[in-house]
Amino acid sequence: MLTHEVSPQPPRVGPLTITLRIADASGKPATGVHVQLEANMSHAGMKTVLAFARETEPGRYSSTIELSMAGDWLILVYMTLPDGAKVKREFEIKGVRQL
Amino acid sequence: MFQLDQKSTKPVSFDLLRVPLLGKLLTMKHARTVVQIPLFVISVAMILHGLFGPVWAPKNLATTFTWVHFRGALVLVLLFAGNFFCLACPFMLVRNLARKFFHPVRNWPRVLRNKWIATALLITLLFVYEWWDLWSSPWLTAWLIISYFAAALVVDAIFKHAPFCKFVCPIGQFNFVSSTVSPLEVKVRDHAVCTACRTKDCIRGTREPAAPLVVIQRGCELALFQPRKVGNIDCTFCLDCVQACPHDNIGILSRLPAAELMTDGMRSGVGFLSKRKDLAALVIVFSFGALLNAFGMVSPVYALEQWLANLLGVNYEWPVLAVVFALVLVVEPLVLIGVAAWLTKLWATRKRSLISTAVRYSYSLVPLGFGIWLAHFGFHYLTGLYTFIPVTQAAVADLGRAVLGEPRWGLSGLAPNMVQLFEFGFIALGLLGSLLASYTIVATENVGHRTRVFSVWAIVSLLMAGSAFWLMSQPMEMRGLVLGGG
User: Fold this and answer.
1) B183-197, B425-439, B471-485: which range is least confident on average?
2) Measured between alpha carbons, how far is residue B334 from residues B261, B326, B359, B433 in Å?
3) Does the pLDDT value for residue B441 go beyond 70?
4) pLDDT tens across B112-126, in order?
């Protein structure tokens, strides 16, 4: 189970902090997960932003990515669990604005 | 490599078909098919990936190749060479294969032998691009390509010659107008040879003597008779005329870009530019559409759309887009070109009607329109230059084996701030071309008050260029469905 928060709100061009909460099927925080983030714009041809997320407390992972352009972004989350299993999730950040 | 002037030995034109090796390759019997096959294979890959591959545009071949690489490469080739995309058009490969089974006998209806349908289709394409956010949808992009194949096949299976290219294809019309500023043109090397020619194979083609319905070599299917052809309008660079000419008298020669817009003589297959309202309408849509399409990618468009939606009391997009399109493609040209044409008519000693004046001078906007398209498409192409690499790597890896290596998603292209310099340069170059074109038209039209008349048309170009500079300096913003999808 994955939930996310982004800061600042509303999202804007520049550094964006993404906080992920990862839990197992029973709702218990998942620790020791290797998390990589990939941010893409909705238009082809834009630079993909890659980042790793750091575990800041059990089941809570945080990363800061640099959004280079206003518009809609797709965030792909690649997770490698401690047992080696790989899980992929995605979510959108819509309407990132230029200050 | 250079054509020689009849009276002197001074080289007057570079001839691409005289370039060693390349010239031989281009004049091979099946040269066109050879360049069409790779593009056809890429098109099929784009369709399959668009329909069955990743749903996200930056990860898909259909959207990446269509909206980043194809458009960018197209305008750059038009700038530096000519209409070579039409030469390599994969839609025509399928159509040519189909013609082995279908032998159409009908002529394209006379009433439709103009650019009105193609202009309407170009507007439709620009509209659905914004409405359905085609740039963000691999699935819709794939269907756009499929529709193109189907339309080319159906039209040219029913009607003989090449009506799809000449009267229907919106990309073709974009290329025809753009290629008026290209440095190369398919043209006659020595007109004296044509004068002595009795067979006129360049237009008629050659047929089996015993079976006149069997075509051995096509002549120009777009009705461009080489000795009287002027410029690149309606020329697909298919090189059928080169193949057909028994005297090897047709080359791909260098010329002054945009010069063909400044003259108004009779052109084979086209007629007089000043009498072609349909062609002028196409040119206006091309030029103002360049501003409109660029406007769709910057932040202020969303504020305008929201304001219009509130004004109209709607919460879905198409009526708002329709108003924006009407403002930019109808109201703005009517005001700018209408006022300029009215003042020209007022001051001119040579009396043309208001419409004829507007038509004649509207061609001067082509270089600027092309410069704006170049700036826009060039931006996406140069900033996303290498993005085809990871997308291709991922597409191949999805087939089972990563034979091209793991996708390198960090690859992009040139830095946007660096590319912005190119954008401004392209617009400035287009502005210069439009100013020169309008100046030359003023001079050749023999109007009175030349300075005044030129100033009026220069103001039109300067206003459009100013808008383009402003647009290109705005923060880019790619969003889908700001309002509802209805």
Assistant:
1) B471-485
2) 21, 11, 12, 22
3) yes
4) 999 999 999 999 999
CB A78 within 8 A of CB A86: yes
Which chain B residues contact residue A97 at CB under 8 A?
299, 477
Q: Which one of B49, B63, B476 makes the best mutation probe of the A interface by having the most chain A beta carbons within 10 Å?
A: B476
Taking the CA of residue A97 and the nearest CA in chain B, the distance in Å comes to 8
A70 contacts on B by Cβ (under 8 Å): 299, 475-479
Average pLDDT, chain A: 91
Selected residue of B473, B474, B479 to mutate for chain A interface (largest A Cβ count, 10 A): B479
**CB-CB under 8 Å, B56 with A71:** no
Instruction: Give the residue carrying structure tokens 């050749």.
Output: B444
Tens-place pLDDT, residues B20-32: 999 999 999 899 9
pLDDT, tens digit, 9 for 90 and up, residues B169-191 = 999 999 999 999 999 999 999 99
User: Cβ–Cβ of A43/B410 closer than 8 Å?
Assistant: no
Of residues B64, B133, B475, nearest to A44 (C-beta): B64
Q: How confident is the model at residue B370 (pLDDT cuts 50, 70, 90)?
A: very high
What string of DSSP letters covers A48-94? PEEEEEEEEETTEEEEEEEE-SEEEEEEEEEEE-TTS-EEEEEEEEE
CA distance A98 to chain B (A): 7
- Residue of chain A minimizing CA distance to B386: A45
Mean pLDDT score, A19-35: 93
Q: Is A18 helix (H, G, I), strand (E, B) or coil?
A: strand
Q: Which two tokens stand for residue B272?
A: 């007089």
* CB within 8 Å: B475 and A38: no
pLDDT level of residue B8 (50, 70, 90 thresholds): very low
Report how far residue B300's alpha carbon sits from residue B368's, in angstroms, rounded to the nearest whole number: 22
Going by their DSSP bridges, the two strands A60-67 and A70-80 should be labelled as unpaired
Q: Which residues of B touch A (CB under 8 A)?
A: 56-60, 63-64, 67-68, 133, 135-136, 299, 380-381, 383-384, 387, 390-391, 409-410, 412-413, 416, 475-480, 482
Mutate to test the interface with B, among A46, A88, A94 (most CBs of B within 10 A): A46
Tell me what ipTM this predicted complex has.
Answer: 0.82
Q: Are B181 and B286 in contact (CB under 8 A)?
A: no
Q: How far apart are CA B43 and CA B148, in angstroms?
A: 11
- Spell B309-328 as b/e; 16+ CB within 10 A means b: beeeebeebbebbebbbeeb
pLDDT of residue B18: 96
Does residue B21 come out as left (phi exceeding 0), alpha (psi in the -120 to 50 range) or beta?
A: left
